[in-house]
């Protein structure tokens, strides 16, 4: 398993999914505080937290991974994953801990201040990947066997989700590295690069930038003459390569190519026959992190490429090694023949496959969440048919709300994955956008009436026909109209107007709600986007609605535009080709 970057996780869909999971676990099990921390590199980072807001900033401070072992040593196993720590002064606990005041209770099993209950999340090798902790049970009592069993189940689901998200982040890194490789090969094949030296110079700039290298060295064999060898520092300064190293390269590069393996120094002890003088030269000037790959096409090796890093830089990850090896193949093709264009097309196909697989990962995660949701919903329905006292009814309703909210996220994820999947073609049929809009309005009228928001519909008497998928168009209009109602306060208004305009059908949804800042408008249609407006954040949402809108519009060869000013309302204008 790789080591995803902390910033990547905080900006990605992973955090939104984990936050929803933590909130749902806390609500379903009956705890007022819950947090999920994930091991990212050498840090334990809290990515999801629900509880008193005044403690959020403290809870989200990262801890070194080294705090995990002593904490586990203090804990008593309460199940396969669950761990319990008896009341302990907070200053004796390693890392960032808070002792929340417990809910008062006179019961013998009352939850005391300083008690800690958490689940240890691990991968298949037993390596800890995260911690799911809960505190302050709403009942004021320690959880019973039923609650512990449920918590164990949800911890298992959280563990699977974290491991899946680790795989997803590794995939995203592969996509980014593959994109860098694609850009490098295409730019190195430009007709403006007249000579091999120009290609090598341009390749150097791309290599050191893409892989954060201190320098690069490319050695190319020439069938009818001496090899061409160019080594440069990051700033472009030429570096002389020792003659012994140049001589040995003719032996080293073909061996690496035949074995299809990289040379990683100083960790790599293979090949054993690497002369000490060559090894010392490659590691000179404290360049203690060296990655070398052979360049070639088919059975023929055409050269060697070496990248170097300073000792204080990160070592070469497995993803980077794989990416550089791929570049060795493609760059070899560029240097050898005009087949570089074909190599580029193959790489584009590979990028598309990776992008498709990313969508499959999202869909798989959604299905993994849907299965336990179905079980929970079924049991909640059965539980609702029994005679429940007032307190149990309140908990039952809270569980129902949490389940419904999570189901909506799963449905949104599945829809986004479906409409983003190029293997799921759009079946175009005539659809009356006027009828779709009326149906949507009928569904949101009661919500608008309850909020005190006036709805005005201006559609005209004639059909507004477009060609597309009726279900997707219904969701498209529904997301725009429901958002307008959601973010408009009492006394405000929402106007939905549609008409023919040249060869298009144009639908405009205008509200007098919160409005959207210019900064937020730039990321509005990205998946899992959440506004920076505190007022808007009070409204529940997944950040998937407008991303789905943008994807559906693109599939229908249309466009969606937004005009808004913060505090004055917004207008979303949908333009689709008339059918």
From TrEMBL:
InterPro entries: GAF (IPR003018), GAF-like_dom_sf (IPR029016), HATPase_C_sf (IPR036890), HATPase_dom (IPR003594), His_kinase_dom (IPR005467), HisK_dim/P_dom (IPR003661), HisK_dim/P_sf (IPR036097), Sensor_HK_Regulatory (IPR050736). GO terms for cellular component: membrane raft; plasma membrane. Its main location: membrane. CDD domains: HisKA. It is a multi-pass membrane protein. It is found in: Cell membrane; Membrane raft. Keywords: ATP-binding, Cell membrane, Kinase, Membrane, Nucleotide-binding, Phosphoprotein, Transferase, Two-component regulatory system. Pfam families: GAF, HATPase_c, HisKA. One of its GO terms (molecular function) is phosphorelay sensor kinase activity. It comes from Nocardioides anomalus. It catalyses: ATP + protein L-histidine = ADP + protein N-phospho-L-histidine. This is histidine kinase.
């Amino acid at each position: 398993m790789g080591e995803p970057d902390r910033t990547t996780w905080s900006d990605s869909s992973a955090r939104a999914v984990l936050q929803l999971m933590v909130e749902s676990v806390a609500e379903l099990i009956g705890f007022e505080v819950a947090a999920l921390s994930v091991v990212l590199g050498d840090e334990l980072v809290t990515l999801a937290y629900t509880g008193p807001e005044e403690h959020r900033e403290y809870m989200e401070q990262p801890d070194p991974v080294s705090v995990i072992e002593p904490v586990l040593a203090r804990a008593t196993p309460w199940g396969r994953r669950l761990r319990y720590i008896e009341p302990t002064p907070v200053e004796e606990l390693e890392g960032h801990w808070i002792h929340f005041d417990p809910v008062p209770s006179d019961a013998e099993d009352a939850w005391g201040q300083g008690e800690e209950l958490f689940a240890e999340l691990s991968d298949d090798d037993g390596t800890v990947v995260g911690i799911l902790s809960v505190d302050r049970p709403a009942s004021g009592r320690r959880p019973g066997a039923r609650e512990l069993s449920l918590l164990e189940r949800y911890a298992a689901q959280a563990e699977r989700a974290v491991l899946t998200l680790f795989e997803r982040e590794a995939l995203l890194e592969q996509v980014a590295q593959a994109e860098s490789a694609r850009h490098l090969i295409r730019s190195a094949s430009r007709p403006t690069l007249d000579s091999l030296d120009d290609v090598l110079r341009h390749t150097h700039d791309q290599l050191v930038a893409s892989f954060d290298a201190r320098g690069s060295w490319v050695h190319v064999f020439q069938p009818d003459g001496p090899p061409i060898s160019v080594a440069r520092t990051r700033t472009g300064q030429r570096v002389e390569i020792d003659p012994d190293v140049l001589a040995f390269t003719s032996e080293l590069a073909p061996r690496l190519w035949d074995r299809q393996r990289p040379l990683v120094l100083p960790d790599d002890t293979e090949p054993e026959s690497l002369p000490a003088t060559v090894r010392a030269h490659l590691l000179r000037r404290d360049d203690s992190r060296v990655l070398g790959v052979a360049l070639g096409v088919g059975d023929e090796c055409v050269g060697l490429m070496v990248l170097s890093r300073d000792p204080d830089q990160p070592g070469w990850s497995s993803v980077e090694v794989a990416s550089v090896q791929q570049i060795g193949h493609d760059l070899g093709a560029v240097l050898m023949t005009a087949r570089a264009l074909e190599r580029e097309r193959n790489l584009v196909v590979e990028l598309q496959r990776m992008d498709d697989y990313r969508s499959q990962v999202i869909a798989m995660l959604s299905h993994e969440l849907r299965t336990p949701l179905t079980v929970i919903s079924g049991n909640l329905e059965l539980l609702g048919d029994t005679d429940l006292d007032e307190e149990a009814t309140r908990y039952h309703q809270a569980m129902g709300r949490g389940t419904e909210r999570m189901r909506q996220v799963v449905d949104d994820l599945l829809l986004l994955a479906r409409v983003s999947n190029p293997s799921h073609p759009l079946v175009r049929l005539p659809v009356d956008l006027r009828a779709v809009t009326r149906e949507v309005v009928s569904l949101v009228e009661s919500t608008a009436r309850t909020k005190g928001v006036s709805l005005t519909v201006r559609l005209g008497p004639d059909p507004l026909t477009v060609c597309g998928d009726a279900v997707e168009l219904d969701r498209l209009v529904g997301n725009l109209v429901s958002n307008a109602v959601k973010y408009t306060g009492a006394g405000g208004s929402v106007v939905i107007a549609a008409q023919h305009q040249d060869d298009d059908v144009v639908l405009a949804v205008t509200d007098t709600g919160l409005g959207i800042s210019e900064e937020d408008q730039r990321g509005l249609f990205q998946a899992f986007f959440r506004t920076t407006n505190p007022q808007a954040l009070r409204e529940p949402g997944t950040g998937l609605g407008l991303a789905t809108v943008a994807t559906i519009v693109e599939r229908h060869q249309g466009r969606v535009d937004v005009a808004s000013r913060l505090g004055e309302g917004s207008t979303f204008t949908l333009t689709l080709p008339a059918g």
